[in-house]
Amino acid sequence: MTRLEEKLLDILQEDCRIPLEKIAVMTGVTLSEVAETIDGLEKQHVILRYAPTINWDRTEKERVEAMIEVRVTPQRDMGFDAVARRIYRFDEVKSVYLMSGSYDLLVLVEAPTLKNLAFFVSQKLSTLEMVTGTATSFVLKRYKEDGVIFEDEKQDHRLVVSP
Amino acid sequence: MNYQNYLNPHVSSVPPSGIRRFFDLASTMKDTISLGVGEPDFVTPYHIRDAAVNSILDGGTQYTANRGLPELREEIAFYLSTRFHTVYNPDTEIVVTVGASEAIDTTLRAMISPGDEVLIPDPSYVSYCPSVRFALGVPVPVVTQEKDGFRLMPDAVEAAITSKTKFLILPYPNNPTGGIMQRDDLMKLSEIIKAHDLMVISDEIYAELTYGDLQHVSIASLPGMWERTMTINGLSKSFAMTGWRVGYVCGPAPIISEINKIHQYAILCSPRMGQVAALEALREGREKDYEDVRKMRESYDRRRRLLVDGFRQMGLQCFEPMGAFYVFPCIRSTGMDSETFCQQLLIREHVACVPGTAFGESGEGFIRCSYATAIDKLSLALDAFTRFLT
């Protein structure tokens, strides 16, 4: 990764709505260089999408999230990847990680209601032939995600004018 | 009672800081966007705060050695030698102070004899002239100019030297101009300093904040200058630790021991909590190659470019500052003086800046804008400037 790429990722991760003209000024390179570099990062699948971090708890939307520890039997020749693929294709599944430790896959699931979520785990996930066991924990409250703290703690304690 | 009889005329004759008036005015206004703040907008990194809290919970509430915690002085010595190539003995050549401010005051008091002339670049940080006067010295401003990048030029220094000149205060990277002095500039200056047998008080509080791959150079690292330099620094700006009040002064032992004498009688020691926090900052910095500092510097750099570009776009002449976190645009083209400009900007657009004159007479025609402010606020401030100027 070049230094410019690193700088651009830094800026975009913070705020991906900053106009490219402004990014060019901030990094001291030309507009076309910024555009080309970001284009390159998108093509290499380094940047996958530009999405906001949303605090759903502040909305009216009903939503249940769970983290499911899944133990599986790895597939011949394909290892865990084939199993993971079978799982992550479900729309309910938000994230899947291969883990070290007492279970194999960590699956983050989201559904509109508890009933939907229970149905997904019992009828879709547990019934996959390579899944040997699951342990489901519900998310009660989100405090911080992707480096963003959800509580309002941004207060400027500084004097308005100081030497 | 006539209290005037009971007041020290050397103190009464010093006017209060010019920044104070703006502070009072700005404080009465709501929704002010402030570019007038002389401190980082970052909160001290969490691991540093955590270390200080733990030390308090563990009962670390006592005085420390006058000169500061020995392990902190060792970290300071290591930090200065690796970052700025200046070597100090932690036992005899370093005193930890209550911010760089105390270091400035105590150093001047320990060194100045009544009537000694002290050269001070103008414009500069607000406390040098008053502190020199409190120490019964005579401050002699040396004008620095935009066309020279606000560097201290050798001929200007030479012209200001008299038989009474003994000291030069060297505050670079500079508040308010953002000017820096590079190695060549310092080399030329050091010849004059040696030729006239002066000593330098080098305030390097912004040393970590230089941009565009330019590294800060400590004058004490130049040949023959270590013995002529008192180096003042601290963690306020580099590690976003202003409120902790931890600074230090380093230099030859015979002077440091006199500074420590004042420090021990007047202050006793810098607060232990701040020292513990500083120790954590420097120790972790050493282990992680000063990652916290680098991240903050990169963030300042982006905002610096944004603000300089913004001012130039609206037709203001704006020198590109390569250090600290201030932009010092020239507002002469508006026909207003610095005070009027800042006052009107505050009243009409609710944007606070500091008039250049708060930092010395040659600050007239300029305003100091701090970019230690969130990018969205900087953008709003630039919009406000544009409205104000049209």
Quick description:
Chain A has 163 residues and is of the alpha+beta class. Helix content of chain A is 33%, strand content 21%. Chain A has helices spanning 3-14, 20-27, 31-43, 81-88, 114-125; strands at 64-72, 93-98, 105-111, 131-138, 144-145, 148-149.
Tell me the β content of chain B: 5-15%
Mean pLDDT of chain B: 96
**Spatial strand order of the main sheet of chain B:** 2-8-7-6-5-3-4
Shape of chain B: globular
Reported CATH architecture of the largest domain in chain A = 2-Layer Sandwich
Structure classification of chain B? alpha/beta
* Annotation field: number of helices of chain A: 5
Oligomeric nature of the chains = heterodimer
Main sheet attributes: strand count, strand direction, barrel closure of chain A: 4 strands, antiparallel
What does this structure look like?
The complex is a heterodimer of chains A (163) and B (390). Helices cover 33% and strands 21% of the residues of chain A. Chain A is α+β, with helices and mostly antiparallel strands and 163 residues long. Chain A has a four-stranded antiparallel beta sheet with strand order 2-3-1-4. In chain A, helix 2 (20-27) packs across helix 3. The longest helix of chain A has 13 residues, at 31-43. Chain A starts with a helix and ends in a 14-residue tail after the last strand. By secondary structure, chain B is α/β, with parallel strands linked by helices. Chain B folds into two domains: 3-44 and 291-389, Aspartate Aminotransferase, domain 1; 46-287, Aspartate Aminotransferase, domain 2, CATH 3.40.640. Chain B has 13 helices and twelve strands. Chain B has helices spanning 9-12, 19-27, 46-57, 70-84, 99-111, 128-134, 154-160, 183-195, 253-266, 272-287, 291-313, 338-349, 375-389; strands at residues 33-34, 94-97, 117-122, 138-143, 165-170, 199-203, 229-234, 247-250, 326-327, 351-352, 354-355, 367-370. The model of chain B has no long low-confidence stretch (mean pLDDT 96). Chain A binds chain B through residues 7, 10-11, 15, 18, 22, 25-28, 156, 158-163, and chain B through 17, 19, 22-23, 26-27, 32, 34, 36-39, 41, 125-127, 175, 212, 298, 302-303, 305-306, 309, 352, 354, 358, 375, 379.
